[in-house]
Amino acid sequence: MAQKKVDVLIIGSGHTGGMAAKILTEKGISCTMLDAGPMLNFEKYREMKPVHELPYRGFDAPGRLPHVFQASEFNANQWVDEKVIPYYHPPEQPYNWVRVRSVGGRSPFWARQSFRLSDYEFKCKDHDGFGENWPLSLKDVAPYYSRVEEIFRVTGHKDGLPQYPDGNFVEDNSPWSGAMQRFVDAGEKLGVPVTKPRSSLGKDGLASSLNLLIPDAVATGKLTTIPNAIVRKITVDKNSGLANGVIFIDRHSHREMVLKARVIVLAAGTLESTRLLLLSDICNSSGALGRYLSDQTYGAGIICSVPEARDGKAPPHLMGGGALIPRFRNLDTKADGFIRGYAVNVSCSNGPFDGRALPFYGKELEQKLQSYNGSGFSTNIMGEALGHYENHVTLNKEVVDAWGIPTLNIYTKYTSNETNMTKDYVDTMAAMAEAAGFEILVKNYEFNPPGYSIHEQGTARMSDDPKKGVVNKWNQSHDMKNLFVADASVFVSAGWQNPTITMCTLSMRASEYLAEEMRKGNV
Question: Do you know which PANTHER family this protein is assigned to (predicted)?
Answer without folding.
Answer: PYRANOSE 2-OXIDASE
